[in-house]
Amino acid sequence: MPESFVSNYKKASIFEAIETHKKAIIYYEKALSFKDDYATKVKLGKAYQKLKKYKKAIIVFEDITKSDSENLLVKYRIGRLYLLTNKPQKAKTIFQELIEKDADNANYSYQLGLAYAMLKKRDLKINSFLDAYKKDDEHIKAIYQLAMSYILLRDRDSANIFIERGLVVDINHVPLNKMKANKLYRDKRYLDGIKILEKVDSLKPNVKFTQKMLGRSWYKLKNFEEAKKYFKRAKKIDKSDYKSYTYLGQIALEEKDLRTAKMEFMLATFIGKDKRDEEYYGLGQAHLESKETKPAIRMFTKAYQENKNNHKALYQMATLSQIFYKDKKIAYKHFDNYVDRFQEKDSLLTNHAKEQLKIIKKYYFQKGVILD
Fold first, then answer.
1. Highest averaged pLDDT of the listed ranges 37-51, 59-73, 180-194
2. Rounded to whole angstroms, how far apart are CA atoms 168 and 112?
3. Exposure string (b/e) for 227-250, b if CB count within 10 Å is 16 or more?
4. CB neighbour burial string for 119-138, b if at least 16 within 10 angstroms, e if fewer
5. What is the pTM of this model?
6. Residues near 145 by Cβ (< 8 Å), separated by ≥ 6?
């Protein structure tokens, strides 16, 4: 049987049906060599798009618009492909033209919002998403983007409006449920947050965020067994997330399991790449409770070196230095630094630091030494 448009088109359609897009493309192109057919071009463009060969898909769809400039669906596809190929300015132009031709289409406004997001035009982005929402108050993608935008603006009231609206539209929307769980955690409504997180875990299991948030929530409720269970799960999912080790160290510290506390905090300091003052501070506490003063001083010093705003670490350095070292000038220097930098931070600690400065100053004065 000789090759023809029909024979090649039929073969392409079979390959498309079984999602063998590479083969489908070969036969669509062969079919087009026999006949310039609009529907076949559309199918060819879609096949390229499914294979993520976006530039080739753009060429095909742009060719269609040369002879059919009023085809809004093809233009919409081109606009989305411009976004996928990081051409937001071209996408913006396309979606603005589409809105002029069909002002009631919420998707056009939504896609325009994505273009503005890529162009870092914050206000225009939000206005476009709001426009999409006005046209369709169940447009879940626009609702989610608005909730996220207002969270980034720290406008929690507006964010909450869209979070709640979105969950009316889609009660199982995972990102919006995660946002709600975060809000409940901030509001110290831990049990309510746990219910949401358990639902998220059932919808999308074994995600670090969910396991960690469940661990943090149970930790706040002092249910350490449940907290440990979820932090251990989070640790298995992402061994590089050192904060799970930190929480396990804090739990061990509160349970007076000092050996485990030291191990977890030490692992956190090895794995962590960011500021690890909390981890070194925890190690210092574990050593202090084990009556190991010198290692405790070393860890509190490391905590302060990691974060010069950690006033508690500096305070611990001062008080332990006063106890451990014969040379009280070491403690004097730390107490003086504390009062100079953190006088307004904690009145109780500041008053104690000032009192110790007087005591040390008097001690050296009696020895004939005047401290500045």
1. 180-194
2. 25
3. bbebbebbbeeeeebbbbbbbbbb
4. eebeebbbebbbbbbebbee
5. 0.84
6. 110, 113, 114, 117, 129
